[in-house]
Protein backbone atom coordinates (compact mmCIF):
# COMPACT_ATOMS: atom_id res chain seq x y z
CA UNK A 1 0.00 0.00 0.00
CA UNK A 2 1.31 3.43 -0.92
CA UNK A 3 0.31 6.12 1.59
CA UNK A 4 -1.42 9.20 0.22
CA UNK A 5 0.16 12.58 0.88
CA UNK A 6 -1.89 15.54 2.07
CA UNK A 7 -0.90 19.16 2.34
CA UNK A 8 -1.09 20.69 5.80
CA UNK A 9 -4.15 22.66 4.65
CA UNK A 10 -5.95 19.54 3.42
CA UNK A 11 -5.08 17.69 6.62
CA UNK A 12 -6.35 20.56 8.77
CA UNK A 13 -9.64 20.60 6.87
CA UNK A 14 -10.01 16.85 7.23
CA UNK A 15 -9.42 17.01 10.99
CA UNK A 16 -12.35 19.37 11.45
CA UNK A 17 -14.78 17.64 9.10
CA UNK A 18 -16.50 15.82 11.97
CA UNK A 19 -15.72 12.32 10.69
CA UNK A 20 -13.66 9.61 12.35
CA UNK A 21 -9.92 10.02 11.95
CA UNK A 22 -6.83 8.79 13.80
CA UNK A 23 -4.26 11.60 13.73
CA UNK A 24 -1.02 9.96 14.89
CA UNK A 25 2.21 11.80 15.65
CA UNK A 26 4.98 9.28 14.97
CA UNK A 27 7.79 11.40 16.38
CA UNK A 28 9.42 10.37 19.64
CA UNK A 29 8.10 11.70 23.00
CA UNK A 30 10.74 14.43 23.36
CA UNK A 31 9.74 16.02 20.05
CA UNK A 32 6.02 15.55 20.72
CA UNK A 33 6.31 17.30 24.09
CA UNK A 34 8.01 20.30 22.56
CA UNK A 35 5.18 20.93 20.13
CA UNK A 36 2.46 19.14 18.13
CA UNK A 37 -0.97 19.78 16.59
CA UNK A 38 -3.76 19.99 19.16
CA UNK A 39 -5.52 16.73 18.29
CA UNK A 40 -2.45 14.68 17.37
CA UNK A 41 -2.17 11.46 19.37
CA UNK A 42 1.34 10.45 20.52
CA UNK A 43 2.33 7.25 18.75
CA UNK A 44 6.15 7.23 18.48
CA UNK A 45 7.72 5.15 15.76
CA UNK A 46 9.75 3.30 18.41
CA UNK A 47 6.50 1.69 19.64
CA UNK A 48 4.39 2.19 16.55
CA UNK A 49 2.71 -1.16 15.96
CA UNK A 50 1.80 -2.06 19.53
CA UNK A 51 0.47 1.42 20.28
CA UNK A 52 -1.47 1.82 17.04
CA UNK A 53 -3.22 -1.53 17.35
CA UNK A 54 -4.31 -0.53 20.87
CA UNK A 55 -5.30 3.00 19.88
CA UNK A 56 -6.86 2.28 16.48
CA UNK A 57 -8.71 -1.05 16.67
CA UNK A 58 -10.38 -0.94 13.23
CA UNK A 59 -8.21 -1.89 10.24
CA UNK A 60 -10.01 0.37 7.76
CA UNK A 61 -10.09 3.44 10.01
CA UNK A 62 -8.73 6.59 8.41
CA UNK A 63 -5.19 7.13 9.73
CA UNK A 64 -3.25 10.36 9.26
CA UNK A 65 0.46 10.51 10.17
CA UNK A 66 2.73 13.43 10.93
CA UNK A 67 6.50 13.43 11.47
CA UNK A 68 9.31 16.00 11.37
CA UNK A 69 9.45 15.99 7.60
CA UNK A 70 12.23 13.42 7.85
CA UNK A 71 10.59 10.43 6.16
CA UNK A 72 9.61 8.60 9.37
CA UNK A 73 5.90 8.89 8.51
CA UNK A 74 6.50 7.08 5.22
CA UNK A 75 8.31 4.29 7.08
CA UNK A 76 5.46 4.19 9.59
CA UNK A 77 2.87 3.93 6.80
CA UNK A 78 4.66 0.83 5.45
CA UNK A 79 4.72 -0.75 8.89
CA UNK A 80 1.03 -0.02 9.48
CA UNK A 81 0.13 -1.52 6.11
CA UNK A 82 1.95 -4.68 7.18
CA UNK A 83 -0.23 -4.72 10.32
CA UNK A 84 -3.36 -4.61 8.14
CA UNK A 85 -4.34 -0.92 8.01
CA UNK A 86 -5.80 0.02 4.66
CA UNK A 87 -6.39 3.80 4.77
CA UNK A 88 -3.17 5.60 5.75
CA UNK A 89 -2.20 9.14 4.75
CA UNK A 90 0.64 11.43 5.77
CA UNK A 91 1.20 15.17 5.89
CA UNK A 92 3.67 16.46 3.33
CA UNK A 93 6.59 18.12 5.09
CA UNK A 94 5.43 17.02 8.56
CA UNK A 95 5.53 19.43 11.50
CA UNK A 96 7.67 22.05 9.72
CA UNK A 97 4.99 22.33 7.02
CA UNK A 98 2.22 22.41 9.62
CA UNK A 99 3.89 25.27 11.51
CA UNK A 100 4.76 27.12 8.31
CA UNK A 101 1.08 27.06 7.34
CA UNK A 102 0.35 29.01 10.52
CA UNK A 103 -1.49 26.23 12.34
CA UNK A 104 -1.33 25.82 16.10
CA UNK A 105 1.62 24.08 17.74
CA UNK A 106 0.93 22.96 21.32
CA UNK A 107 3.60 21.93 23.81
CA UNK A 108 3.04 19.37 26.57
CA UNK A 109 0.95 16.21 26.73
CA UNK A 110 -2.77 15.39 27.08
CA UNK A 111 -3.44 18.83 25.66
CA UNK A 112 -7.09 18.39 24.56
CA UNK A 113 -8.07 17.20 28.04
CA UNK A 114 -6.19 20.02 29.75
CA UNK A 115 -7.70 22.55 27.35
CA UNK A 116 -11.16 21.27 28.23
CA UNK A 117 -10.37 21.75 31.91
CA UNK A 118 -9.37 25.36 31.33
CA UNK A 119 -12.48 26.01 29.24
CA UNK A 120 -14.71 24.57 31.96
CA UNK A 121 -12.93 26.67 34.58
CA UNK A 122 -13.65 29.81 32.55
CA UNK A 123 -17.29 28.81 32.03
CA UNK A 124 -18.29 27.40 35.41
CA UNK A 125 -15.81 28.98 37.85
CA UNK A 126 -15.48 26.20 40.42
CA UNK A 127 -14.71 27.40 43.92
CA UNK A 128 -11.00 27.32 44.77
CA UNK A 129 -8.84 27.57 47.85
CA UNK A 130 -5.26 28.80 47.77
CA UNK A 131 -2.39 26.99 49.45
CA UNK A 132 -1.98 29.52 52.26
CA UNK A 133 -5.65 29.30 53.24
CA UNK A 134 -5.65 25.49 53.21
CA UNK A 135 -2.47 25.47 55.30
CA UNK A 136 -4.19 27.77 57.80
CA UNK A 137 -7.20 25.44 57.90
CA UNK A 138 -4.89 22.56 58.71
CA UNK A 139 -3.11 24.46 61.47
CA UNK A 140 -6.39 25.61 63.02
CA UNK A 141 -7.88 22.13 62.82
CA UNK A 142 -10.79 23.55 60.83
CA UNK A 143 -13.12 20.78 59.70
CA UNK A 144 -12.69 19.73 56.08
CA UNK A 145 -12.00 16.60 54.04
CA UNK A 146 -9.07 16.61 51.63
CA UNK A 147 -8.85 14.31 48.59
CA UNK A 148 -6.20 13.85 45.91
CA UNK A 149 -7.76 13.21 42.47
CA UNK A 150 -4.70 11.52 40.95
CA UNK A 151 -4.12 7.76 40.53
CA UNK A 152 -2.28 5.87 43.28
CA UNK A 153 1.10 5.79 41.50
CA UNK A 154 1.21 9.58 41.16
CA UNK A 155 -0.06 10.08 44.69
CA UNK A 156 2.66 7.83 46.08
CA UNK A 157 5.43 9.89 44.45
CA UNK A 158 4.50 13.12 46.20
CA UNK A 159 1.50 14.34 48.13
CA UNK A 160 0.29 17.00 50.52
CA UNK A 161 0.04 15.90 54.14
CA UNK A 162 -3.54 15.09 55.06
CA UNK A 163 -4.71 14.27 51.54
CA UNK A 164 -6.43 10.96 50.87
CA UNK A 165 -6.04 9.30 47.48
CA UNK A 166 -9.46 8.97 45.86
CA UNK A 167 -9.33 9.68 42.12
CA UNK A 168 -11.99 11.54 40.18
CA UNK A 169 -15.03 9.37 39.55
CA UNK A 170 -14.25 7.17 42.54
CA UNK A 171 -14.81 10.07 44.93
CA UNK A 172 -18.26 10.79 43.52
CA UNK A 173 -19.14 7.09 43.47
CA UNK A 174 -18.08 6.56 47.10
CA UNK A 175 -19.10 9.97 48.36
CA UNK A 176 -21.85 8.77 50.70
CA UNK A 177 -19.37 6.37 52.34
CA UNK A 178 -16.45 8.78 52.79
CA UNK A 179 -18.31 12.06 53.37
CA UNK A 180 -21.26 11.37 55.65
CA UNK A 181 -21.80 15.06 56.55
CA UNK A 182 -23.40 17.23 53.87
CA UNK A 183 -22.04 20.41 55.45
CA UNK A 184 -18.31 19.61 55.67
CA UNK A 185 -16.15 21.36 53.03
CA UNK A 186 -14.40 19.06 50.55
CA UNK A 187 -11.06 20.08 49.03
CA UNK A 188 -9.72 18.38 45.87
CA UNK A 189 -6.16 18.59 44.61
CA UNK A 190 -4.09 17.20 41.76
CA UNK A 191 -0.58 17.98 40.53
CA UNK A 192 -1.62 21.10 38.65
CA UNK A 193 -5.03 22.33 37.60
CA UNK A 194 -7.07 20.02 35.35
CA UNK A 195 -8.05 17.17 37.65
CA UNK A 196 -8.84 19.53 40.52
CA UNK A 197 -11.13 21.55 38.24
CA UNK A 198 -12.75 18.47 36.70
CA UNK A 199 -13.09 16.84 40.13
CA UNK A 200 -14.85 19.84 41.66
CA UNK A 201 -17.19 20.26 38.69
CA UNK A 202 -17.84 16.52 38.59
CA UNK A 203 -19.10 16.58 42.16
CA UNK A 204 -21.32 19.53 41.27
CA UNK A 205 -22.67 17.62 38.28
CA UNK A 206 -23.35 14.60 40.53
CA UNK A 207 -25.56 16.75 42.76
CA UNK A 208 -23.19 16.94 45.74
CA UNK A 209 -24.32 19.72 48.07
CA UNK A 210 -21.19 20.01 50.19
CA UNK A 211 -18.97 23.06 49.68
CA UNK A 212 -16.41 21.74 47.16
CA UNK A 213 -13.16 23.59 46.50
CA UNK A 214 -10.28 22.86 44.13
CA UNK A 215 -6.82 23.57 45.53
CA UNK A 216 -5.46 26.37 43.37
CA UNK A 217 -2.71 24.96 41.13
CA UNK A 218 -2.58 21.69 43.08
CA UNK A 219 0.63 20.31 44.55
CA UNK A 220 2.66 22.70 42.40
CA UNK A 221 0.83 25.68 43.88
CA UNK A 222 1.43 24.20 47.33
CA UNK A 223 5.17 23.88 46.72
CA UNK A 224 5.37 27.35 45.15
CA UNK A 225 3.84 28.75 48.34
CA UNK A 226 6.78 27.27 50.24
CA UNK A 227 4.98 24.34 51.86
CA UNK A 228 6.48 20.83 51.97
CA UNK A 229 5.42 17.78 49.98
CA UNK A 230 5.59 14.21 51.28
CA UNK A 231 7.49 12.02 48.83
CA UNK A 232 7.59 8.26 48.43
CA UNK A 233 4.59 7.66 50.67
CA UNK A 234 2.39 4.56 50.52
CA UNK A 235 -1.07 5.37 49.17
CA UNK A 236 -3.68 4.99 51.89
CA UNK A 237 -6.90 3.16 51.22
CA UNK A 238 -6.71 3.17 47.45
CA UNK A 239 -9.84 2.41 45.40
CA UNK A 240 -8.96 -1.23 44.80
CA UNK A 241 -8.49 -1.75 48.55
CA UNK A 242 -11.78 -0.18 49.61
CA UNK A 243 -14.62 -2.51 50.58
CA UNK A 244 -17.73 -2.71 48.48
CA UNK A 245 -20.23 0.03 49.23
CA UNK A 246 -22.96 -0.80 51.68
CA UNK A 247 -26.50 -0.86 50.24
CA UNK A 248 -27.25 2.70 51.32
CA UNK A 249 -24.10 4.20 49.80
CA UNK A 250 -24.52 2.14 46.64
CA UNK A 251 -28.09 3.36 46.25
CA UNK A 252 -26.91 6.95 46.68
CA UNK A 253 -24.44 6.45 43.83
CA UNK A 254 -27.12 4.86 41.66
CA UNK A 255 -29.63 7.64 42.35
CA UNK A 256 -27.10 10.30 41.43
CA UNK A 257 -26.31 8.40 38.24
CA UNK A 258 -29.99 8.19 37.25
CA UNK A 259 -30.43 11.94 37.70
CA UNK A 260 -27.21 12.82 35.88
CA UNK A 261 -27.97 10.54 32.91
CA UNK A 262 -31.51 11.81 32.54
CA UNK A 263 -30.69 15.50 32.99
CA UNK A 264 -27.93 15.42 30.39
CA UNK A 265 -29.61 12.95 28.01
CA UNK A 266 -26.62 10.64 28.07
CA UNK A 267 -26.84 7.49 25.96
CA UNK A 268 -27.55 4.33 27.93
CA UNK A 269 -27.20 0.89 26.36
CA UNK A 270 -27.61 -2.79 27.17
CA UNK A 271 -24.96 -5.50 27.10
CA UNK A 272 -26.48 -6.72 23.83
CA UNK A 273 -26.17 -3.23 22.37
CA UNK A 274 -22.53 -3.08 23.44
CA UNK A 275 -21.73 -6.37 21.74
CA UNK A 276 -23.38 -5.18 18.52
CA UNK A 277 -21.38 -1.95 18.58
CA UNK A 278 -18.13 -3.83 19.01
CA UNK A 279 -19.02 -6.00 16.01
CA UNK A 280 -19.91 -2.97 13.87
CA UNK A 281 -17.27 -2.64 11.13
CA UNK A 282 -18.43 0.81 10.00
CA UNK A 283 -17.72 2.74 13.20
CA UNK A 284 -14.89 2.51 15.70
CA UNK A 285 -15.93 1.46 19.19
CA UNK A 286 -13.89 1.27 22.39
CA UNK A 287 -14.87 -0.60 25.54
CA UNK A 288 -13.66 0.67 28.91
CA UNK A 289 -14.31 -0.77 32.37
CA UNK A 290 -14.33 1.95 35.04
CA UNK A 291 -14.79 -0.36 38.03
CA UNK A 292 -12.10 -1.18 40.59
CA UNK A 293 -10.04 -4.37 40.28
CA UNK A 294 -12.12 -6.10 42.97
CA UNK A 295 -15.37 -5.15 41.26
CA UNK A 296 -14.07 -6.38 37.90
CA UNK A 297 -13.05 -9.71 39.39
CA UNK A 298 -16.58 -10.26 40.70
CA UNK A 299 -18.06 -9.89 37.22
CA UNK A 300 -15.41 -9.82 34.48
CA UNK A 301 -15.74 -7.99 31.18
CA UNK A 302 -12.46 -9.17 29.68
CA UNK A 303 -12.90 -7.43 26.34
CA UNK A 304 -12.81 -4.07 28.11
CA UNK A 305 -9.76 -1.97 28.91
CA UNK A 306 -9.67 -1.22 32.66
CA UNK A 307 -9.10 2.45 33.46
CA UNK A 308 -9.86 4.90 36.24
CA UNK A 309 -12.68 7.21 35.20
CA UNK A 310 -10.70 10.36 35.95
CA UNK A 311 -7.72 9.20 33.93
CA UNK A 312 -9.84 8.46 30.88
CA UNK A 313 -10.87 12.12 30.94
CA UNK A 314 -7.41 13.43 31.90
CA UNK A 315 -5.39 11.42 29.38
CA UNK A 316 -7.90 10.44 26.70
CA UNK A 317 -5.26 10.41 23.96
CA UNK A 318 -3.44 7.59 25.76
CA UNK A 319 -6.48 5.34 25.39
CA UNK A 320 -8.35 6.53 22.30
CA UNK A 321 -6.70 7.12 18.93
CA UNK A 322 -9.74 7.86 16.76
CA UNK A 323 -11.48 11.20 17.03
CA UNK A 324 -15.31 11.10 17.08
CA UNK A 325 -15.26 7.39 17.94
CA UNK A 326 -17.84 5.58 20.06
CA UNK A 327 -16.77 4.94 23.67
CA UNK A 328 -18.65 2.32 25.72
CA UNK A 329 -18.24 2.85 29.47
CA UNK A 330 -18.85 -0.10 31.78
CA UNK A 331 -19.87 0.64 35.38
CA UNK A 332 -21.96 -0.90 38.11
CA UNK A 333 -24.18 1.92 39.42
CA UNK A 334 -23.48 4.09 36.40
CA UNK A 335 -22.22 7.21 38.19
CA UNK A 336 -18.56 6.89 37.26
CA UNK A 337 -19.58 6.24 33.65
CA UNK A 338 -22.05 9.12 33.57
CA UNK A 339 -19.50 11.64 34.83
CA UNK A 340 -16.91 10.34 32.38
CA UNK A 341 -19.42 10.48 29.52
CA UNK A 342 -20.28 14.07 30.37
CA UNK A 343 -16.70 15.20 29.83
CA UNK A 344 -15.86 12.83 26.96
CA UNK A 345 -18.82 14.16 25.02
CA UNK A 346 -17.39 17.66 25.42
CA UNK A 347 -14.12 16.32 23.96
CA UNK A 348 -15.95 15.31 20.78
CA UNK A 349 -16.55 11.61 21.39
CA UNK A 350 -19.77 9.57 21.38
CA UNK A 351 -20.04 7.98 24.84
CA UNK A 352 -22.46 5.19 25.77
CA UNK A 353 -23.10 3.96 29.30
CA UNK A 354 -23.47 0.29 30.17
CA UNK A 355 -24.93 0.09 33.71
CA UNK A 356 -24.33 -3.43 35.01
CA UNK A 357 -26.83 -3.09 37.85
CA UNK A 358 -29.53 -2.87 35.18
CA UNK A 359 -28.68 -6.37 33.91
CA UNK A 360 -27.31 -8.49 36.76
CA UNK A 361 -27.43 -11.69 34.69
CA UNK A 362 -26.46 -10.39 31.24
CA UNK A 363 -23.43 -11.85 29.49
CA UNK A 364 -20.62 -9.31 29.05
CA UNK A 365 -18.14 -9.17 26.15
CA UNK A 366 -15.19 -11.45 26.95
CA UNK A 367 -13.10 -11.13 23.80
CA UNK A 368 -12.73 -9.01 20.72
CA UNK A 369 -11.66 -10.27 17.33
CA UNK A 370 -9.28 -8.33 15.14
CA UNK A 371 -7.62 -8.79 11.78
CA UNK A 372 -4.69 -6.57 12.75
CA UNK A 373 -1.29 -8.27 13.00
CA UNK A 374 1.55 -7.57 15.41
CA UNK A 375 5.12 -8.06 14.16
CA UNK A 376 6.85 -11.11 15.61
CA UNK A 377 10.02 -10.99 17.66
CA UNK A 378 12.87 -13.46 17.13
CA UNK A 379 13.21 -16.15 19.81
CA UNK A 380 14.78 -14.87 23.01
CA UNK A 381 18.20 -16.34 23.78
CA UNK A 382 19.98 -16.97 27.05
CA UNK A 383 22.38 -14.44 28.49
CA UNK A 384 25.27 -16.79 27.72
CA UNK A 385 24.29 -17.21 24.08
CA UNK A 386 23.95 -13.46 23.63
CA UNK A 387 27.36 -12.88 25.21
CA UNK A 388 28.97 -15.20 22.70
CA UNK A 389 27.39 -13.27 19.81
CA UNK A 390 28.77 -9.99 21.18
CA UNK A 391 32.20 -11.55 21.64
CA UNK A 392 31.99 -12.64 17.99
CA UNK A 393 31.43 -9.04 16.89
CA UNK A 394 27.68 -8.36 17.10
CA UNK A 395 26.80 -4.78 18.09
CA UNK A 396 25.18 -4.51 21.54
CA UNK A 397 22.18 -2.17 21.63
CA UNK A 398 19.95 -1.33 24.60
CA UNK A 399 16.26 -0.81 23.73
CA UNK A 400 15.11 -0.42 27.34
CA UNK A 401 13.85 3.00 28.56
CA UNK A 402 16.70 5.48 28.53
CA UNK A 403 16.43 6.09 32.28
CA UNK A 404 17.01 2.38 32.90
CA UNK A 405 20.17 2.55 30.75
CA UNK A 406 21.37 5.60 32.68
CA UNK A 407 21.08 3.74 35.99
CA UNK A 408 22.62 0.37 35.01
CA UNK A 409 23.62 -1.25 31.73
CA UNK A 410 25.62 -4.01 30.12
CA UNK A 411 29.21 -3.02 29.51
CA UNK A 412 29.53 -1.55 26.02
CA UNK A 413 25.77 -1.33 25.42
CA UNK A 414 24.66 1.71 23.46
CA UNK A 415 21.21 3.11 24.20
CA UNK A 416 19.22 3.59 21.02
CA UNK A 417 15.71 4.24 19.81
CA UNK A 418 14.14 2.16 17.06
CA UNK A 419 13.64 5.37 15.10
CA UNK A 420 17.44 5.67 14.82
CA UNK A 421 17.84 2.24 13.24
CA UNK A 422 19.59 1.23 11.11
CA UNK A 423 21.00 4.62 10.08
CA UNK A 424 23.11 5.17 13.20
CA UNK A 425 24.86 1.80 13.10
CA UNK A 426 28.45 1.65 11.89
CA UNK A 427 28.82 0.78 8.23
CA UNK A 428 29.20 -2.95 7.70
CA UNK A 429 27.22 -4.02 10.78
CA UNK A 430 25.88 -7.49 10.06
CA UNK A 431 24.49 -8.58 13.43
CA UNK A 432 23.17 -6.96 16.60
CA UNK A 433 22.15 -8.10 20.07
CA UNK A 434 19.13 -6.16 21.33
CA UNK A 435 18.74 -5.96 25.10
CA UNK A 436 15.06 -5.41 25.88
CA UNK A 437 12.44 -7.00 28.10
CA UNK A 438 9.48 -6.20 25.82
CA UNK A 439 8.98 -8.47 22.84
CA UNK A 440 7.06 -5.75 20.98
CA UNK A 441 10.06 -3.40 20.98
CA UNK A 442 12.35 -6.10 19.66
CA UNK A 443 9.84 -7.25 17.03
CA UNK A 444 9.50 -3.72 15.69
CA UNK A 445 13.24 -3.04 15.57
CA UNK A 446 13.87 -6.42 13.93
CA UNK A 447 11.79 -5.43 10.91
CA UNK A 448 13.84 -2.31 10.25
CA UNK A 449 17.15 -4.09 10.75
CA UNK A 450 16.19 -7.08 8.63
CA UNK A 451 15.47 -4.79 5.68
CA UNK A 452 19.19 -3.98 5.67
CA UNK A 453 20.17 -7.62 6.04
CA UNK A 454 21.21 -7.27 9.67
CA UNK A 455 20.67 -10.33 11.88
CA UNK A 456 18.96 -9.72 15.23
CA UNK A 457 19.53 -11.64 18.45
CA UNK A 458 17.23 -10.88 21.37
CA UNK A 459 18.55 -10.75 24.92
CA UNK A 460 15.58 -10.58 27.29
CA UNK A 461 17.40 -11.52 30.51
CA UNK A 462 17.60 -9.13 33.45
CA UNK A 463 20.89 -7.44 34.30
CA UNK A 464 21.30 -9.70 37.33
CA UNK A 465 20.83 -12.80 35.17
CA UNK A 466 23.34 -11.40 32.68
CA UNK A 467 25.87 -10.88 35.47
CA UNK A 468 25.51 -14.51 36.51
CA UNK A 469 26.26 -15.52 32.90
CA UNK A 470 29.50 -13.53 32.84
CA UNK A 471 28.45 -10.14 31.53
CA UNK A 472 30.08 -7.07 33.09
CA UNK A 473 27.48 -4.65 34.45
CA UNK A 474 28.16 -0.92 34.50
CA UNK A 475 26.52 0.54 37.61
CA UNK A 476 27.84 4.08 37.70
CA UNK A 477 25.13 6.57 36.70
CA UNK A 478 25.44 8.08 33.24
CA UNK A 479 23.39 10.87 31.76
CA UNK A 480 22.03 11.14 28.25
CA UNK A 481 21.37 14.55 26.74
CA UNK A 482 17.92 15.72 25.81
CA UNK A 483 18.77 15.14 22.17
CA UNK A 484 19.87 11.57 22.89
CA UNK A 485 17.05 10.54 25.27
CA UNK A 486 14.28 10.99 22.73
CA UNK A 487 11.95 8.61 24.58
CA UNK A 488 11.19 11.16 27.32
CA UNK A 489 9.00 14.23 27.41
CA UNK A 490 11.40 16.98 28.49
CA UNK A 491 8.88 19.82 28.51
CA UNK A 492 9.19 21.25 32.08
CA UNK A 493 9.90 17.67 33.15
CA UNK A 494 11.31 18.66 36.55
CA UNK A 495 8.40 20.79 37.73
CA UNK A 496 7.68 18.30 40.54
CA UNK A 497 11.32 18.17 41.65
CA UNK A 498 11.70 21.60 43.18
CA UNK A 499 12.34 23.55 39.96
CA UNK A 500 10.37 26.70 40.70
CA UNK A 501 10.77 28.17 37.22
CA UNK A 502 9.58 24.96 35.60
CA UNK A 503 6.46 24.95 37.80
CA UNK A 504 5.69 28.56 36.95
CA UNK A 505 6.21 27.84 33.27
CA UNK A 506 3.93 24.80 33.41
CA UNK A 507 1.10 26.60 35.17
CA UNK A 508 1.34 29.54 32.76
CA UNK A 509 1.23 27.04 29.89
CA UNK A 510 -1.96 25.43 31.22
CA UNK A 511 -3.69 28.76 31.77
CA UNK A 512 -2.64 29.94 28.30
CA UNK A 513 -4.02 26.99 26.34
CA UNK A 514 -7.35 28.61 25.45
CA UNK A 515 -5.62 31.63 23.94
CA UNK A 516 -3.81 29.33 21.49
CA UNK A 517 -6.99 27.92 19.96
CA UNK A 518 -8.16 28.95 16.52
CA UNK A 519 -11.85 29.06 15.65
CA UNK A 520 -12.03 25.47 14.39
CA UNK A 521 -10.18 24.13 17.44
CA UNK A 522 -12.40 26.03 19.83
CA UNK A 523 -15.52 24.76 18.06
CA UNK A 524 -14.31 21.16 18.48
CA UNK A 525 -15.05 21.32 22.22
CA UNK A 526 -18.60 20.89 23.45
CA UNK A 527 -20.30 22.39 26.48
CA UNK A 528 -20.97 20.78 29.84
CA UNK A 529 -24.33 21.95 31.22
CA UNK A 530 -24.21 22.39 34.98
CA UNK A 531 -27.00 24.97 35.22
CA UNK A 532 -29.40 22.63 37.03
CA UNK A 533 -26.81 20.63 38.94
Q: Can you walk through the features of this model?
A:
The protein is an alpha/beta fold. It contains 24 helices and 24 strands. It has a five-stranded parallel beta sheet with strand order 1-5-4-2-3. It folds into four domains: 104 residues, 3-Layer(aba) Sandwich (Oxidized Rhodanese, domain 1), CATH 3.40.250; 136 residues, 3-Layer(aba) Sandwich (Oxidized Rhodanese, domain 1), CATH 3.40.250.10; 93 residues, Oxidized Rhodanese, domain 1 (3-Layer(aba) Sandwich); 95 residues, Rhodanese-like domain (Oxidized Rhodanese, domain 1), CATH 3.40.250.
Question: Which key phrases capture this entry?
Answer:
single chain, 533 residues, alpha/beta, Oxidized Rhodanese, domain 1, 5-stranded parallel beta sheet, 24 helices, globular
Amino acid sequence: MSARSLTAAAAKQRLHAGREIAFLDVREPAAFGEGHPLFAVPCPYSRLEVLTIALVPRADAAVLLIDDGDGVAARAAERLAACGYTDVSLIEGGMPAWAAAGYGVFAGVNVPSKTLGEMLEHTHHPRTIDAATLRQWQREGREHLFFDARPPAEFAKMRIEGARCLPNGELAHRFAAVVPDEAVPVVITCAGRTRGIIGALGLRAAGIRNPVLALENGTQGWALAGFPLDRGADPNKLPDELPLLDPQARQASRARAETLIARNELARISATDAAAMLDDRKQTSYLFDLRSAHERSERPCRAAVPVLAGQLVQATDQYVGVRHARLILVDDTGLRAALTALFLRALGFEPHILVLDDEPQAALPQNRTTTLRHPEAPPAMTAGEALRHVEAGAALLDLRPSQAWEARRLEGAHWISRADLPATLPAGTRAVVLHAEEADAVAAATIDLAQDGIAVHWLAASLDACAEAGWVIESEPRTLTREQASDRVWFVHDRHDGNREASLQYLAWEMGLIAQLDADERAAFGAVDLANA
